[in-house]
Amino acid sequence: MTCPRRSLDRPRPVKVIRNVRESRRISRIEFRDQYAVCSSPGQFLMAYVPGLDEIPLAVSNIDGDIVTVLIKAVGECTEALCEKREGDLIGVRGPYGSGFKFTGDKRSLLIGGGLGIAPLLLLAKRLSEQHSEIITVMGAPTGEDLAMVDAFTAYSKLKVVTDDGSVGEKGLASDRALKMILEQEFCCVYACGPETMLAKLVDICAERRVQIQVSLERWIKCGIGLCGSCVLDPTGLLVCLDGPVFSGDQLKQVKDFGRFYRKASGAKVGF
Prior knowledge:
The chain is an alpha/beta fold. It has helices at residues 76-82, 120-129, 149-153, 173-183, 195-208, 248-251, and strands at residues 12-21, 26-32, 44-49, 53-63, 66-72, 89-96, 107-113, 133-140, 157-162, 169-170, 188-192, 211-215, 231-232, 237-238, 245-247, 260-262, 268-270. The chain has 3 domains: 12-96, Translation factors (Elongation Factor Tu (Ef-tu), domain 3); 100-215, Nucleotide-binding domain of ferredoxin-NADP reductase (FNR) module (Rossmann fold); 218-271, no CATH class. It has 6 helices and 17 strands. The strands form 4 sheets. Strands 10-9-8-7-11-12-15 form a 7-stranded mixed sheet, sandwiched between helices. It has a 6-stranded antiparallel barrel with strand order 1-2-5-4-3-6. Strands 13-14 form a two-stranded antiparallel sheet. α4 runs parallel beside α5. It is globular and about 50 Å long.
């Protein structure tokens, strides 16, 4: 699809078409936007709530001219977005970032921990269009924290894992995925979720010589590479500009990957 030519950096008002509560704290918001509809899997938008804040949201799905994002209510801005109703306006700009790269996969493993499933649905959809065999591991603390389960089953073989065993297998998504990588052959692994989980996956894929691409969830303020709040030391890579999707080889050069993250102030804290 060819995107209209104009600056993507100016917030655009979009009208909420539908807001569906996926779980106790996760909402699925749908809207139309002629720029966001051009997003590639793994790219993100900056969503703006006047008077509150602006936050990054992964593009979860594109169906015709309708764009879908997933939002978890964890703070004032996300709670306000989750409360939006049909017809309400929100501001968006983008899409931004570098998304997932397609490698002609015949067999792919997708791993989403918590809201890390958000950028993986559009990826699963695009991979299925290329006739790739897809297995998705979806993890969450409890069954009440799962989202878009039916949507993933339309494009992949879904394995659900919950910490408490209330739905699917009991355990961690990372442990289930690591076992599958050791026992089965995959052309590429794609993952998003807690960084400690991603670090484990990158290590095991390096040992097994399996390609892996992961989407990092770091603090993004501007989205266009100006503020430096999402820099990865010591490479200088910016999550908003060079990512959020990185290869395992790139992340092996990032000394704070899986060890430290930055707070809103820029201070480093350990996981």
